[in-house]
């Protein structure tokens, strides 16, 4: 474990608080995400996991504290509910958007981009689906499309928000293979996950969140029964009449 | 005989020719705006926006009389103000954007009718509310054709960001693009089209020639470009048929044109190739895989 600690972290959160309507969704969190590793963000519903990812992307509404990010390029997999899946756009066009940083809103995609997009579609097991509109796809197939788009983004930090919600075992296995390949290419992967068995099996690092940080580090230590119980108790204590937070609660990561 | 019915009115009367050219221009740009309004689930908001032109147009009428440039400028300013203020209200409060649009629309309608009645007769009010496509003069024609040109060029320019903003706004944000910029550019084009349509169809029905053909097209096509390609001819056919019918039967042209578009909508709803009544009732043999 000391070798991980010696590496420069991909992300360092310093006393981070993110709030909606003054209620903190993420409260005084300090933690480090190791570079080139797979880290799971775990916690009960409403614990601020998605908000934390949004903050890492720079999309959270009101952020106090600091996020140091060493990554040049960040790719982000949103929850499917954030996408209008009835929109009439074909698979190939959706995947090509992964090259946005190359052609932006106005330049044309090159034949090389299109070749890479076809390759990515094949890599996620959707060969032959290029011209299909996305509204004809199942949830699992559409998740494969989004993974193909991530492949094209060629990012050194990949943020995944519940990548396996409502997805069958075969698709999970295929997509996990993609994630492992990212890790072998020294990319940092951060995923919000609910399946603790899967986290223990596949993710060496974890960050347990219940608005405040419960623990962060090697998964075996973080996901102890005691920590999980504490996380649940903390998540249930939402105080509608909360006073202003005067004293920053500092916790060591 | 057929020549007299179909070609005659346009050959003999300049106002019919101008009306036809104006409808062609309105159809080309309005249909593409309509397709995006549907895909952005903004049809009712678009309707509210069209009504909100009224107080601006009325104010232009109060200051400049029945002058098209004054009323158009007023309408455009009022429409943009409504779009920006409703968007801002939705952003800074917890009120949903559709609710704030509805509030803005009711306020505008009342204000507009009040302003017109301060000076005009009820005929002026009818003209503003329901339009007079047969009264399209050269100035109006330039305005309409200019709007069409600007709309088609503008939509082509912002097409990709706008499409992504429609179906996955979070992705644009993650790419560091301000999606709201394209949202408001699109709303600007939409308001411009409503202003252009307003002399022809009036503020109450300006959206008719934009939305009805686009909705009809959604029963035939399932990509943005193909929906537009189908919607524009439907719009133009509705306008041409509506003009002829209103000419021969002596009916007001605006409502007849919109009703023609409604007929196309109904026919598509019944007969369209996808998600239509026909597609629902006929149960074709399922495919092998």
What's the number of extended β-strand segments of chain B?
Answer: 0
* Low-pLDDT runs of chain B: none
In terms of quaternary structure, what is this?
heterodimer
Main sheet summary of chain B: none
Cα end-to-end separation of chain B:
54 Å
Which second-level CATH architecture of chain B applies? Answer: Orthogonal Bundle
- As for the CATH topology of chain B, it is ABC transporter involved in vitamin B12 uptake, BtuC
Q: Examine the secondary-structure arrangement and name the CATH architecture of the domain at 1-71 and 204-253 in chain A.
A: 3-Layer(aba) Sandwich
What's the CATH first level of the domain at 1-71 and 204-253 in chain A?
Alpha Beta
Stated plainly, the CATH topology of the domain at 1-71 and 204-253 in chain A is called: Rossmann fold
Look at the structure and name the CATH superfamily of chain B.
ABC transporter involved in vitamin B12 uptake, BtuC
Largest interface, counted by CB within 8 Å of the partner chain's CB: A-B, 20 and 21 residues
Compute the average pLDDT of chain B: 86
Number of helices of chain A: 10
| CATH level-4 homologous superfamily of the domain at 1-71 and 204-253 in chain A | P-loop containing nucleotide triphosphate hydrolases
Would you tell me the overall average pLDDT of chain A? 86
Class per helix and strand makeup of chain A: alpha/beta
CATH level-1 class of chain B: Mainly Alpha
In angstroms, what separates the terminal alpha carbons of chain A?
A: 15 Å
Helical residue percent band of chain A: 25-40%
If you compute it from the alpha carbons, what radius of gyration of chain B comes out, rounded to the nearest whole angstrom? 20 Å
